[in-house]
Amino acid sequence: MNWLGAVPAWCWWLIALVLVAGGQQYRVVVAQAEAVSARSELADYRLQVAERDRRAAAQARTEEQRRQKVADEEGKSARQKLELAQGRAAAAESAAGGLRGEIDRLRAGRSATCGAIAAQQRQAGSSAVVVLGGLLEDADRMAGGLATALERSRIAGLACEAVVDGMKPGR
Predict the structure, then answer these.
(1) In terms of residue numbers, what domain contains 129?
(2) Is residue 93, in this structure, part of any structural domain at all?
(3) d(Cα 165, Cα 171) in Å, to the nearest integer?
(4) pLDDT in tens, 36-90
(5) Closest CA to 126 of 145, 153, 108, 143
(6) Which of 5, 89, 116, 120 could form a disulfide with 148 if both were Cys (CB 3.0 to 4.6 A apart)?
(7) pTM of the shown model
(8) What per-residue confidence (pLDDT) applies to 78?
(9) What's the domain count of the chain?
(10) How would you label 76-110 residue by residue, b for 16+ Cβ within 10 Å and e otherwise?
(11) Which residues are CB-contacts of 137 (< 8 A; sequence separation ≥ 6)?
């Protein structure tokens, strides 16, 4: 141990300082390497997230276009069905107008043929025909209006159901 005593104390301090500085330098180099690695991983992660976002946006656009196409097709189909129903309603209204004309003709004929019958009998018979004819006309108008409303409601409901069914994923 004699040679340890021959080394001055300041040399020991210098050796300790060099060892500490070398250790710190090693830690700095390792930290810098880890930072470069972390930056690279962060850049890769950002690329992955951007690609995932792009794919999700494209998928969402595709789904939105599919749903819009379904809604457009069902809307077109519903409009065609409504036009057909309106045509049928117009034809039914025309036929009902013919029936009303026939009822009016029967009323007029009834009052003309009843001239030979006693006044009391004629009045009772004529009023019954008039009342029944009026009831028939009112019932016919109500039935036509209700049928038109019901057909429109049915077509709109079916179109709505078809749109909702078309909006379900996987179709």
Answers:
(1) 9-167
(2) yes
(3) 8
(4) 999 999 999 999 999 999 999 999 999 899 888 988 988 898 889 888 888 887 8
(5) 108
(6) 89
(7) 0.51
(8) 86
(9) 1
(10) eebeebeeebeeebeeeeeeeeeeeeebeeebeeb
(11) 100, 103
